[in-house]
Amino acid sequence: MSTWFVLAVASAVVFGISTFFFKINSFKNWPLLPFFGGVYGSGTLAFIVTANLEGVLYLTPMIILSGIVVGIGSTFGNLLLMRAFQHGPASLTSPIVNTNILLIVIMSVLFYGERLGILEYIGILLIIVAISILPLDPQEKLSIPNRIWYVYALVATVLFFLRNGGLKVTEEMALPNTTILMVGYFVGAVWSVYAYLMSKETKMEEGAKQGKGFALGLVTGLFSYGGMQLYAVALQTGPASIISPIFATNSLVVALLSILYLKEKLTLMQTTTLVGVFVGIVLLRV
């Protein structure tokens, strides 16, 4: 079994746990900005340590620019993901957002010469069909009461493409992705502090809630760092058209944890969509 495959699977599991913690923060109704501060604060420090150990703790204009793009995709993608969690089940939201892999697969084939087999093409078609039938669910209002969920999920998908697809581009440019992720997480940390200072509503929240959100964020940031670092290392030796779909199975971890621990329930069509997305992802990784 290839090392890149093992790393890709590990990245999905670790990152899936971090995404589930995002849902936990939303479920507990803890303030968002202290949580974000914890996520991007601990993540930045972890990437600084790793970059130093790898001997890539330096900055160039291209690294800074790439880091800013990745940071914008990560920070605001996660922000909209949290908004989507407030209007729909995490067990459905996370798989839908992870369909940004389709854009990465297309980019890898068109611009980097990676080739797809018949099963991978079938997987892409299955994912598109599964997502297309989602708005037709007659029972969707039972768990998605506000159609703004679709807006949040769609824009978050595009933003996460900036993050995940951006790392593919920078890997092809032979730039150090660890350093780029360090800059990206620093962008998230700076935005979180700025937004907190500007938010009178958040500062009026109960101190205990802010502390709990920040503490959970610190733990979440370490899992997020671990998942993204494993993903970045896997991209160094393996094909992005396969690694990205494997990484996207982190949504399976989120879905299972949400169903098991948060007792979320899905309608029949949502379950069909979920199964379709996962089968498509499996076909992409075969």
Automatic annotation (TrEMBL):
The chain crosses the membrane at residues 6-25, 32-51, 57-80, 92-112, 118-136, 148-166, 178-197, 213-234, 240-259, 266-284. Belongs to the EamA transporter family. Keywords: Membrane, Transmembrane, Transmembrane helix. InterPro entries: AA-Vitamin_Transporters, EamA_dom, EmrE-like. Residues 4-133, 168-284 form the EamA domain. This is Membrane protein. It is found in: Endomembrane system. It is a multi-pass membrane protein. Pfam families: EamA. Signal peptide: none annotated.
